[in-house]
Specification:
Chain lengths: ~350, ~300
């Protein structure tokens, strides 16, 4: 595909890119070179986790931040993707590369089946309760299907990604413990997620999403099919969570119902979205960066982690519904405007 | 393969009624809150847990009578609930995002309370003795007195709640507020006071349930999770906001579950309730006694 063709198919105007676009492109280029600068595999592991969790948080953000549907059982989709891809690779010998897609599709399929009966109803309470219950169904099933999932003992012996040959770079193998190749996989997932989310929220569909978030009645009066768009958002979100789970399975190489299917997964997603800013594309990325690095480098916080998250949810809901960072920015800007006004009034006095 | 005989079925029905009365007690609180304030309280299970702990300490530390312990738990949790409603939930009323904000806020309260309970009271499970020893024989099977006490206390608390809601002035004011907030306000009822009262009432019901179940299941920081989910299921089955529906659905679910245990193994029992809920949402989304609402 030629470059011109690329520009026409994706409707990207090559001339005069916006500053945000330039910064994003520059940032993605920097991200591609990170493994050259960072030699420590531990550090790279943290960065992989930051990218992975920013994608899972983004999946929650698309639902809650853009269409206003809160899911409290999103760990089910993450875990479904993880277990599906791992089991397909172990029992059926299907390549984890295809597993990434299958994991996402299975999650999306379950998302649609569970979402349909509740998303046609008004009121977020139904969705909240049903997603919570669905997560419980999945958790209990995966704990009890010991013959297939090994239950609480955890599923291990998950195959790694098979090696691929990249023209120009030669053969790339993904043995367990290698960080750099995994970094590039998660980076590609991350960039695709970001690009697709950007395209989605700036399309007509994204406009419908935001219309529904602002007022369901108004959106419906304008001819927006509520159920259709909510289901679409739910499916996309579940797909994304499933792909992330599937990558997690082939990267961490051990799956336990108490880690991948626990409510902690969704609480992480919510906390990251709230810290970085709800309903913005950069929010989950920022939130994931702040929370994961804080928990890694300030280990004592780990002990109070859930206490802090609990308090965080309350504070966000009461004082900063848009998120912590947007609130800080807002306060800072207000301060700056005050300073400017004071300065200008002084000038007038002079 | 189990042999199904009349005795087994009788036992299952009795067990079902007992757990149904317990579900009804927790769920009527959830339903009351939904009916009056149109919010879901994710921290409901934590009040149940706190009730259990208060009973534990009043029995072991202060050597109180169980009856006094339960009353103490109900009163403390009532005021705790009022405090949380006033300081955390009240400021959000009338602001945009009411549909989601209280859920996330109460989820935060729930996580915080669980973790605080773990840090303060420890991870170790605590047990308290049965309130009364012994069994009562009924039609060839014997049932522990403790289980009868659960049935008796839970049902009588529900009856009291019923009388309070239907006959007293405060109950009528709460129902008026839930039917039409503005009209109630015009009649001189302060809806915000009613919200606070209903919230306190709702969580103190949960704490009584926690106290009654504490001798059967051990007390731990996470004990509220199961009853919370079950009460949500029951509320949806009965129709969100309908206390009558919730009570009816509780008994039906209790009996259905204990019948189900005869046929399937007990690890799968909990899934049964959730699957029934999903099926009901497909075929009758408004629940058993709910009215199709469009708000």
């Amino acid at each position: 595909m030629g470059l011109d063709q690329f520009f026409t198919t994706f409707k990207v105007k090559p001339t005069r890119p916006s500053p945000a676009m330039t910064i994003t492109l520059a940032a993605s280029l920097i991200l591609f070179t990170i493994p050259i600068f960072i030699r420590g595999s531990y550090m790279l592991h943290i960065i992989i986790l930051i990218l992975l969790y920013s994608c899972t948080a983004q999946s929650w953000n698309i639902l809650s931040g853009y269409i206003g549907v809160s899911s409290f059982g999103h760990q089910a989709f993450f875990g479904l993707g993880a277990y599906t891809s791992a089991l397909f690779a172990m029992r059926l010998g299907i390549s984890p590369w295809i597993g990434l897609l299958i994991g996402g599709l299975v999650s999306a399929g379950f998302g649609l089946v569970v979402g349909y009966p509740v998303l046609r109803l008004r009121g977020g309470a139904y969705t909240a309760i049903v997603t919570l219950a669905f997560a419980e169904i999945i958790r209990i099933s995966f704990m009890n299907l010991v013959e297939i999932t090994r239950g609480e003992l955890g599923l291990w012996g998950i195959p790694v990604f098979p090696s691929i040959v990249v023209p120009g770079l030669g053969k790339i193998s993904f043995e367990a413990g290698a960080r750099t190749p995994y970094y590039y996989i998660v980076l590609i997932i991350f960039l695709l997620t970001f690009f697709m989310s950007y395209k989605l929220v700036n399309s007509r569909i994204g406009l419908a999403f935001r219309a529904i978030r602002e007022s369901e009645d108004a959106a419906e009066n304008l001819g927006v099919n509520l159920t259709k768009y909510k289901l679409l958002a739910f499916g996309i979100s579940a797909f994304l969570a499933g792909v992330c789970g599937s990558f997690y399975a082939h990267y961490i190489l051990i799956l336990m119902p108490t880690t991948v299917l626990a409510s902690g997964v969704v609480i992480d997603m919510i906390a990251m979205t709230f810290v970085g800013g709800q309903g913005t594309l950069f929010g989950p990325i920022l939130g994931s960066f702040i929370l994961i690095s804080a928990l890694e480098y300030l280990r004592f916080l780990m002990y109070y982690r859930w206490l802090i998250y609990g308090g965080l949810f309350v504070i966000v809901m009461l004082f900063a519904p848009a998120g912590i960072i947007p609130k800080i920015v807002e306060i800072a800007q207000r301060g700056m405007i005050k300073d400017l006004m004071r300065a200008s009034s002084r000038e007038v006095e002079d | 393969m189990v042999v199904i005989n009349s005795q087994l079925i009788l036992e299952a029905i009795l067990n079902g009624i007992i757990s149904g009365s317990f579900y009804a007690l927790v769920a009527s609180g959830v339903s009351l809150i939904w009916g009056t304030m149109h919010m879901v309280n994710f921290a409901h299970g934590e009040f149940y847990m706190i009730g259990g702990y208060i009973l534990f300490y009043s029995l072991t530390l202060w050597r109180l009578n169980p009856v006094l312990g339960i009353i103490l738990a109900a009163v403390i949790v009532f005021f705790l609930g009022i405090g949380i409603q006033r300081f955390l939930i009240h400021p959000m009323i009338g602001k945009p995002g009411w549909e989601h904000a209280p859920m996330i806020l109460t989820l935060g309260v729930s996580i915080f309370a669980q973790q605080a309970a773990m840090l303060v009271w420890g991870e170790r499970y605590k047990s308290i003795p049965y309130f009364a020893e012994g069994t009562i024989p009924i039609g060839g099977i014997s049932v522990a007195i403790q289980r009868f006490l659960i049935l008796a206390v839970c049902s009588s608390v529900i009856v009291v709640l019923w009388i309070v809601l239907k006959r007293t002035k405060i109950g009528m004011a709460i129902r008026a507020t839930s039917q039409n907030r503005d009209a109630a306000a015009l009649m001189g009822i302060n809806p915000f006071t009613m919200f606070t009262l209903a919230f306190g009432l709702s969580v103190s019901l949960a704490s009584i349930a926690g106290c009654m179940l504490a001798p059967l299941f051990l007390i731990n920081p996470w004990m509220g999770h199961g009853p919370l989910l079950k009460s949500f299921v029951v509320c949806i089955l009965g129709g969100l906001g309908s206390v009558e529906g919730a009570i009816l659905a509780s008994f039906l679910l209790g009996i259905f579950e204990s019948m189900g245990v005869i046929l399937i193994s007990s690890e799968w029992k909990d899934i049964l309730a959730f699957i029934i809920m999903l099926i009901i949402l497909y075929i009758r989304p408004q629940g058993l006694l709910g009215i199709k609402e469009r708000t």
